[in-house]
Design goal:
By secondary structure, this protein is α+β, with helices and mostly antiparallel strands. Helices cover 55% and strands 8% of the residues. The chain has a five-stranded antiparallel beta sheet. The two termini are 27 Å apart.
């Protein structure tokens, strides 16, 4: 039973988790400029009176901004249409909808190298997913292709591509999390310091980070499976 479960995880579950991780990472990387404009973001600035007065802030109307790795989307009010910037690895966030007393300078984009590293990590993840799936299902393919996929060099290359994709991507997203976390803290502190004269806004880290952590938790399963195979083969030699 244990052997059958292990085989099912290796052949079917691990590739499925790798594919899910890629999709979630792409959502977090491309949103909000290219998709899920007001649904997924790394940082959001929305109408709220929570920082300047006590009581409920439900029903407050005002400008909203959604920031991501490649750009931003903004709207002047809850009922207004969204306007998004062009997607680029060196984005200039459109904060023109925010009031003049809003601390806009605190909402800056990370350096261009960080989105570039994420793009490289996702590319590595795609390559790993393809190679890992082919290696796992090699017994269902032709004899020549199966023999090629049996080569230890190809399996080691696949495992290391996946490992480096994991490390690069997770590190880049951790850097962005710290960057935006500090921006949220400073933005809210500046708004609160203005008291009743401050803008009715509040900043928060977005749900894109939740998607990223789930993605890399899923991604760890095929990575561990692939590296474990290499370790077992190495100990047999």
């Amino acid at each position: 039973m244990i052997a059958g479960l292990s085989k099912a995880i290796t052949l079917y579950l691990a590739p499925l988790l790798a594919l899910t991780a890629i999709i979630l990472s792409l959502f977090a990387f491309l949103a909000p400029t290219l998709l899920l404009h007001d649904r997924v973001a790394l940082l959001t600035v929305v109408p709220s009176t929570a920082l300047i007065q006590t009581g409920s802030s439900a029903g407050i109307d005002g400008p909203s901004v959604f920031l991501g790795v490649l750009g931003s989307c903004a709207r002047k009010s809850n009922s207004a249409s969204l306007n998004c910037t062009a997607a680029t690895i060196s984005p200039q966030y459109d904060l023109s909808v925010l009031p003049g007393n809003s601390p806009n300078l605190l909402l800056s984009a990370p350096t261009a190298s960080t989105p570039a590293f994420i793009a490289v990590a996702i590319s590595f993840s795609v390559l790993f997913f393809i190679s890992f799936t082919l290696i796992s299902l090699r017994h269902k393919m032709g004899a020549k292709l199966a023999a090629l996929l049996e080569k230890p060099l190809l399996q080691r290359l696949s495992a290391w591509i996946g490992f480096f994709g994991f490390i690069i991507g997770l590190t880049a997203f951790l850097i962005i999390r710290m960057w935006f976390g500090k921006a949220v803290q400073d933005f809210n502190a500046s708004v609160a310091a203005q008291g009743q004269q401050g803008p009715k806004l509040i900043a928060a880290t977005g749900n894109a980070f939740t998607m990223v952590w789930v993605a890399y938790a899923f991604y760890a399963v095929p990575i561990i499976t692939s590296l474990a195979k290499l370790n077992v083969k190495a100990t047999k030699q």
